[in-house]
Amino acid sequence: MVNLTEDRAQEKAFLSHAPGYWPNVSPELWNDWKWQLKNRVTSLAQLEEHLELADEERGGVLLSGDKLALAITPHFFNLIPRADAEDPIRRQVIPRIEETWSSPYDMIDPCGEDSHMPVPGLVHRYPDRVLFLVTDRCASYCRYCTRSRVVSGVGEQELHTEFEAVYRYLETHTEVRDVLLSGGDALLFSDNKLDQILARLRAIPHIEFVRIGTRVPIFLPQRITPELCAMLAKYHPLWVSVHVNHPRELTIEVKEALERLADHGIPLGNQSVLLRGVNDDIETMKTLVHKLLICRVRPYYVYQCDLINGSSHLRTSVAKGIEIIEGLRGHTTGYAVPQFVIDAPGGGGKVPINPGYILYHDNEKIVIRNYEGKIFEYPEIGNENVQFAPQREYHDEYLYS
Ligand SMILES: *Cc1c(COP(=O)(O)O)cnc(C)c1O
Ligand code: SF4
Question: Is the CATH number 3.20.20.70 carried by domain 114-352?
Answer without folding.
Answer: yes
